[in-house]
Amino acid sequence: MSALTFHDRPELRDPVMVLAFLGWNDAAESASGVIRYLRRKARTERLAEIDPDEFFVFTEDRPHVRLRDSRTREIRWPLTDFTPARFEGAERDFILGLGTEPHLRWKAFSAHVAEVALELGVSEIITVGGLLADTPHTRPVPVSGSAHPLERMQELGFEPSSYQGPTGIVGAIGDMCREQDIAHVGLWASVPHYVSGGQNPRATQALLTQLNEIYALGLDLSDLEGRARRYDAQVAEALKDNSEMREYVQKLEASAEPSDEGAGAAAEATPERLSSTDALKEIDRMLRGDEEETA
To answer: What was the pLDDT predicted at 242?
Structure first.
């Protein structure tokens, strides 16, 4: 029995698949926040899902028990599901995929993602992610991109990446896209590492802005601004009485400024990351508290 189940096969207009995965690829829930936001806008039903049983070690990532109707208990498994979406300003339709990064059998998992894409006529897959970086929260969230094939990268104005090292499930899916000759775009938001607790609406906003521009979605993202401003105020409140943290942020701001000596000088000026401090713990507590209030 296949782990992939289809519930519907709708007729879609040259669809694009947008994917995000909780876990290592999702710093401050910046990427998963993108899919949740788009799903709230689209309000559509599930069309396919990947059963988690053969891809997870449940003693490492345990399912959750929830109460339904205050009486019935149900188990919430780390499901990966896909929903269709149509946005008023866009000429193409979208398939929104959201899940948790699996523990096992990434090639088989990626093959199921490819099956959904090929079955529904997807011509391009875009993955969104968030990574922890030495960037100040007082500056716009940087978004970097990659794309395949080369013509698509040049069209979007992306620079080739020189990164070598560990990758996540989005890297495996990007590799699968090359094997299946499916165009792939990857977007990454650089999240300030010292405010990684809870959701970072600024990072989600930055990724959504890029998607809005690339695919002409016509989305009004102004409804995100109120939450983003509240987030900014909470971070400022947590930092205001800690001189060490304020000095550290000032150094990050200085290293983020353009330099006549080039990127190498900026990299050398980047301050050493702070280890765990009371201020970092307080920021984490405040941001997670706000997340619970707005969930």
So the answer is: 77
